[in-house]
Amino acid sequence: MPLPKARLPIVAILALYFLSAPPIPIPWVPVAGGCGPSCAQAQDQPAKGPSAAILAPTKLRQGDPLLAWVVRLDPPGSAAAPARSAPKAKEGAPKAPSGSSRTAISPRPAPPVARLLGPDGKVVSEVRCFELPESLERVAAQGPSVRVYGALLPLATDLPPGGYSVAIIPAELAQESAAAGTTSPAAAPGTAVASGTTAASGTAVASGTAVASGTAVASGTAVAPGTAVAPGTAVAPAPGTSAVSPAPTAAAPAPQSPQSPPLLVAASFVVDARDFSVEEIKLDETNTDIQSKPNKRKTNEAERLYALLDRTDPGATYAVAGRFLFPVEGGAQSAGFGDRRRYLLSNGGSDQSEHAGIDWAVVKGTAVRACARGKVVMVADREATGITVVVEHLPGLYSLYFHLSSAKVKRGQFVEAGQTLALSGSTGLSTGPHLHWEIRAMGRAVDPDYWLSAPLLDKEAIKATIDGLIEGR
Q1: Positive or negative torsion for Cα 450, 454, 458, 462
Q2: Reduced to 3 states, what is the DSSP secondary structure of residue 17?
Q3: Per-residue pLDDT for 47 more than 60?
């Protein structure tokens, strides 16, 4: 009689299998608090892409500056997130192969590019964003890397009113699309478009599309003309801002256009028209010569100043919070930003110009204060503007103070908001004691009044946005 076949329990079979199989290495990383391998996480999972949000004004006027803040969150294990070091190997253990990704430090991503897009979706202007150094410190031991970028775009005084958008595009994709001569997608006024969203080729999201104000389109979703998007899927963290966080897809997906680069994030806003005053100014013989007669000194001084104002130093993040301070106390405004001026020359002729700042009539010798924290980059006695002080506040953002009687700072000096820079006067092309206060953004004059009521950066809104991205809100 044949013997019955032995039946081993399933647990014994599995035990024999694992005892005979070669060991399987389990990667791990240290966890904050030092709990060790018991709470390790594998790092060989496919890395998720970055998520992003943008805080930007929803309404501006001709001649205003646009300063948008972009928060980018890179998950652990992504190419842009800093790599974590492996635990120290025990004595006698085999060394990790050279070039191991566990010990390499991933390069920081290049700052993205900001594009101002017109109502037709065409690029009006483009600038490189700058990165706040504080964002580099927000790297958790086991969490995502958070970076904060600023995008500074001036709006011309003659920019046609209407719906515009600012699109933040990864640097490498912006270069590719620029080389191909493509058109970037735009969003409808009040619409926030999240990471990875594109529009159909040559079409703005608003074209034939019902997209309500305050709506967010989820990451990776393309919006095709004729697609209705449900409103209320994203909420701005603070009044006057538009923030985007990853949200459920609210539109039917459509194929991405090969001609439109994927967006990191974008937001839209409305530009309102404004009326600028017109004034006539009579000039005596001395001021007529300064205004109308060309000379080498005046030309050289103008070239040096404009070259300075066109410069963008990525490390010049001196003023990142708070509102501007008005630079003088007392007095009254004698001319506004954007005024259309007609100079009546002493020889019977005339000349025209657009006023690039604010004129404030004050008694000679009035203290002129820095409107914000910054670095003094010019102190000079110029023919047209007299004794002049220029302060750099952010990459591409400068304040200028003209017609001073004396300067109290030196080039290269760092100053705090409210610190005395100079005393007011009437030097250069001037018809009486006053301060000419001017703000330049990326080389273009913008309305100085704007940041007297709006902060450069709302830290609470940024913090809420970062928390929302990390929590998936």
Answers
A1: negative
A2: helix
A3: no
Q: How many Å is the Cα radius of gyration of the chain?
A: 29
| pLDDT computed for residue 307 by the predictor | 96
pTM: 0.70
Residue 458 structure tokens: 């709302």
Give residue 76's pLDDT.
66
Q: Which of 153, 64, 144 has its CA nearest to residue 114?
A: 153
Distance between CA atoms of 458 and 320, rounded to whole angstroms? 9
Residue 1 pLDDT grade (very low, low, confident, very high; cuts 50, 70, 90)? very low
SS3 145: strand
Question: Which of 406, 437, 449, 466 minimizes the C-alpha distance to 65?
Answer: 449
Asked if pLDDT for residue 444 goes beyond 70, the answer is yes
Structural contact between residues 209 and 227, judged by C-beta atoms closer than 8 angstroms: yes
**Amino acid of residue 34:** G
Q: Looking at 50-189, list the stretches that DSSP marks H as alpha helix, in order from N- to C-terminal side.
A: 171-180
Retrieve residue 400's tokens: 């200028």
Distance of CA 315 to the CA centre of its chain: 14
Number of Cβ atoms within 10 Å of the Cβ of 341: 15
- Rounded mean pLDDT of the chain? 73
Lowest mean pLDDT among 26-30, 54-58, 59-63, 77-81: 26-30
SS3 238: coil
Q: Which residue has the tokens 């060790």?
A: 36
Task: Report the alpha-carbon distance of residue 374 to residue 390 in Å, rounded.
Answer: 10
Residue with tokens 């009113």: 161
Strand pairing category for 65-74 and 51-55: antiparallel
pLDDT digits (tens, 9 = 90+) for 194-211: 333 333 333 333 333 333
Name the least confident of 124-128, 255-259, 285-289, 304-308: 255-259
**Complete DSSP assignment for 371-415:** SSSEEEEEEEEETTTEEEEEEEEETTEEEEEEEEEEE---TT-EE
Cα–Cα nearest to 263, from 170, 125, 172, 189: 170
The whole-angstrom separation of Cα 334 and Cα 291 is: 19
Q: How far is CA 156 from the centre of its chain?
A: 18
